[in-house]
Amino acid sequence: MPELPEVEVVKRSLEKKILNLRIKKVKINDENLRYKIDKDNILKLAGKKIKKIERRSKFLTFKINNNVFMLVHLGMTGKFFFSNELNKKFKTSFYYEINEIKDLKHDRVIFFFENKRKLIYNDVRKFGFIKVYKKKTEYLKNNHFKNLGPEPLKKDFNFNYFKTYITNRNRCIKDTLMDQKCISGLGNIYVNEILFLCRIKPSRKLNKLKDFEINKIVKNTKKVLKYSIKLGGSSIKNFSSDDGKKGIFQQHFKVYGREGEKCSNTDCSTIIIRSIISNRSSFFCKRCQK
DNA sequence: AGGCATGTTACAGG
DNA sequence: ACCTGTAACATGCC
After folding, report:
1. Between β-strands A118-123 and A78-83, what pairing exists: parallel, antiparallel or unpaired?
2. Which residues of chain A are under the pLDDT cut of 50?
3. Known active-site residue A280
4. Through-space separation of residue A11 CA and nucleotide C4 C1' in angstroms
5. Among A20, A23, A48, A95, which is least packed by CB within 10 angstroms?
6. What is the pTM (predicted TM-score) of this model?
């Protein structure tokens, strides 16, 4: 379920659990993730501590001591689980309930810490990956960050940037917002939600956007992402609560997944429709989004 | 059986 | 070299 807000929530949650813990052992159950895991490198993490966790777009970076860096992308179905010394599993994010037996099969990599604590990387579809860089220079050169546009929540994603970016391009707004080169961290769910709030239909061409709409897109992008992070992100399945903190943003989806339902804008009861744009479902209200 | 699913990227064509 | 659109990757659920 990971778009920017979910990855951010995972990051914050992991910080509380594994920061400064020493890795004792790494076990690889399935090395064939999006990229084949470099066993030599990942096994060498044993004995080292996790010093810092950062997020860039939908990527997580674990800074390990001795200038070692571990880069993780959750793909479509990647999740982290943490279990403590009692071998009782706890969620590492706020929004996954663990069905231990069912999920065992998809536990791809396990990091063992002292006192029987474990961090489990679980990924059903294996679109996620884990890469280890032995040197800071190697990490900085990694090709995943090369073409990333600005972080939506930072100041460099603003009206001027966005207006300049879309000038002389012709594409529809939905594809543009999904394009990580333009803005990094959005995915299908949040783009649908943002465009609904902006009352712009996903297929609108960039050259037909008015300045006030460009401004609205920038503002609503920040608003939706912040609100979702505040609610602990969203999840379509495997969702449950534990200690009262849970990701509940999916309860606030206004269009995503709501094909056939009535538009949630007041004084509109048009049925939300779904259409495919660039191989991805788009949900929108024909009446409100122009 | 066939369609669908939160993402990225290799590739082809302009 | 840049821009854009498409298909593929692996797996499970309706």
Report:
1. antiparallel
2. 87, 93-101, 237-245
3. yes
4. 33
5. A20
6. 0.93
